[in-house]
Amino acid sequence: MGWPQTLALLGGLAAILFSLFHQFDKRFEQVDKRFDDLRAEMINRFEQVDKRIGDLRADTTTRLDRIERLLERLLKPEPSH
């Protein structure tokens, strides 16, 4: 095999390797973007859950405050006449 054939084979091999690496690179970019999308979705869901917990906590506190005031009124001694 002479130099021209060897160079042609090496050129073909280089083209194949470049094509494969380019496909791998594109696929890694797609996977990386999907991870970013999933991370953003997860953060969004955690924020929604955190807000819901805060809302429930505030609602519970309000209800407990009302119950406490009601109990204070019920247990308050009546003024004597």
List the helices and strands and how they pair.
Elements: H1 3-75
State the gist of this model.
By secondary structure, the chain is mainly alpha-helical.
Write up this protein.
It is a single chain. The N and C termini lie far apart (123 Å). The chain is rod-shaped, with a radius of gyration of 35 Å. The relative contact order is 0.04. It is built from one helix and no strands. 90% of the residues lie in helices and 0% in strands. With 81 residues, the protein is mostly helical.
In round numbers, the mean pLDDT is 93
* Biggest sheet details: none
Number of strands: 0
Distance between the termini: 123 Å
Return the string of H and E elements: H
User: What's the alpha carbon Rg, rounded to whole Å?
Assistant: 35 Å
Poorly predicted segments: none
Helix content: over 70%
Could you name the key traits of this structure?
81 residues, mainly alpha
